[in-house]
Amino acid sequence: MVEPGPTTPTSPATPTDPATPTNPTNPTPAPVASPVATNGKLQVVGNQIQNQNGVAVQLKGMSLFWSQWGGAFYNASVVNSLADNWKVTVVRAAMGVEEGGYLTNPAAEKARVKTVVDAAIAKGIYVIIDWHDHNATQHTAQAKAFFTEMAQLYKNTPNVIFEIFNEPDYESWNEVRAYAVEIIGAIRGVGAPNLVVVGTPTWSQGVDAAASNPITQYPNVAYTLHFYAGTHGQWLRDRADAALSKGIALFVTEFGTCDASGNGNLKLDETGRWIDFMNSRKLSWANWSLHDKPETASALVPGASTTGNWPDSALTPSGAFIKQKLLQ
C-alpha cells in the first residue's frame, strides 16, 4: 500500500553483476538441501500452497523496494546475504511500472528483475516477479507482453512466482478478475505452470471479493493479502479467515510493521500477532521492504550497504524485528 514518496537517498543503479543466463529448456538444478530442492514446484490445492510432496509450504522473506528507486539493491550479493544470513526462502522483486519504471525504461527494469531472479535460482530460493502497479488494468497490453516473456524464460523453473498485479486501488474485483484472466491466459499459453498471485481490491485487502468469485479458468492461482500493522488489525485477519474458509489460497506478498503510508506508528506487537496468524495458517509472507529509505517500513538505515552482509547497526527497529522472526 506504500506509495513511493520522494526519491530515496540511494540512487538507482543498473545491476553491475551479470546474471547467469537462464536456459528455459534445461534450468540449473537447485542446490542440494535448498528450499527449492526440498519443496520443488508449488501448487495451489484448496486453500493451501503445497510443495511437490503435497505438503503445505510457507515461504518467508523480504520484498525489495520499487525497482526504479531501489535498483541499487537489485543484485546477487543482496540476494545471497538474505538467503545466508536472514534465512529467507523467498525474495520479491518489486518492479515499478509507472513513475519512471517499466513503462519508461523497460530494458533497465527487466534487467534488474532478471538479476534478482537468476540470483535466487542460483541460491535455491523462491522469487516473486511483481508487476508493482496500482493501475495495471490500464496497462494490460504491456503486462501481457512482459509476463509472456517472463513465462517463456522461467516456465521450467519452480523458483519463480508471478505476481501479476501488486495492489489494485479503486478497481472493482470484476475489473481485476478480467485483467487477471487475460494475463494468466498468456502465462499458461506458453506452457508455464508457475504459481500466479493475483492482487485484490482496495490495496489487496479485498480478499473477500476474490473468495466470492474466484478465478476458475486456470489452476495454481493464489490471491494477495497485504497489511500494515499500524493500520490493519483483527478485522482484516477475520476477513482473511473468511476467505480461506471459502477455499481460496492467500499469499501475503507485502506487509509492513507500521502505518500503511510506510512511515510512523511502528507496531511490533501487532506485527507479532499478524506473524503468528500467518504462521498458524501457513500463509507465505514477504516484508516491505529491504531498502534504506528513511521511513519506518525500511529494514535498513539510510546509507546501509547496497551489497548485503549488514551488521546489526545497519538495521532499523523494523529490520531487526523481522530478521529475528525469519531466524526463528
UniProtKB/TrEMBL annotation:
Domain (Glycoside hydrolase family) ranges: 51-293
Gene Ontology biological process: polysaccharide catabolic process
Comp. bias intervals (Low complexity): 8-23
Region listing for Disordered, in residue ranges: 1-36
GO MF term list: hydrolase activity, hydrolyzing O-glycosyl compounds
Sorted UniProt keywords: Glycosidase, Hydrolase
A UniProt-annotated Pfam family: Cellulase
Family: Belongs to the glycosyl hydrolase 5 (cellulase A) family.
Protein name, entry field: Glycoside hydrolase
Organism: Cystobacter ferrugineus
